[in-house]
Amino acid sequence: MAQNLSGGHHKDAEPSKYVNCSGKLYKRESGLTRCCGKDVYSVADDNVLCCNGVLYRNVPEDSECVGGVIYDQNQIKMLSCGSEVYDHKKQLCCSGQLYSKTEAECCGNLLLESNKNQICCSSSTHAKLYDIKHKHFCCGHYYYNTSLWSCCAEHLKPTPKNDSSPPKYRLKPLTDLIPEMCNKTVLFGKVESMVLRQKWRDIVLRVIVAVNEVSQGPLLNLSLNHCSSPALENGMTYLWKKIKRKYKPLSIPVDLTSDIHMFITVCDINQQSDNTCSHMFYAQSGFSMHGNF
Fold first, then answer.
1. φ, ψ dihedrals at 266, nearest 5°
2. Residues 163 and 186 in one domain
3. How many domains does the chain have?
4. 222 Cβ neighbours under 8 A, 6+ residues apart
């Protein structure tokens, strides 16, 4: 282990001989010496892992640091909820709060139980529970009276319409869609552009990862009914489900690295336990790769 020299006077220490880790000076043992917060280690060390600036020793081989949580191969099928690791088959995580898995779903950090006379209205930024009322519908995270308002793409307008078509479903956090979507034909797609054409919203979608089918190409052109579909943002990536020859968005915006990695890893292990494989297609920035995972 590298020697801690921070008690001495080494302000002018040569970088080739010493390494400064957050104010602590260590002798550089080799070119593989690295800092982890105020500690030092070698990337050649066995069973050592730096995770969010904290150095862990004696960790199982092939462990990974994801979101500040260390996962070994026995835990990789689990997800993190705040700082805790949980089994999505037994528990439900709602914005950092863990619940026993029942016939329920998350509504932000609240639990929507199926036996309650309530409804969850959500947008990409908020989620709220409301008591169910006659002639009321969700419009994003608002619950509105159709006699007073109309809704189009999660935006309320003070002009009630008889032919108003509020969204018939809401976008959910990605973790709420596992494992239900693991064996479905889905893809992670980034919204490149959107154009309104009468009642339609024409979208150019860049395929990042296609699951359980081979993508037709890096770009897809699709149309959604503008008013009855959830609001989407340019540049954001969502999970989409293929229904016949059409696609509909399922998730709130996802992270291109951690969320997609989590979905693929968890779903892949679920499928391996059933002795099946998932065929995935990666297509981003003109690069594609096929593989069985």
1. -65, -45
2. no
3. 2
4. 202, 203, 205, 246, 247
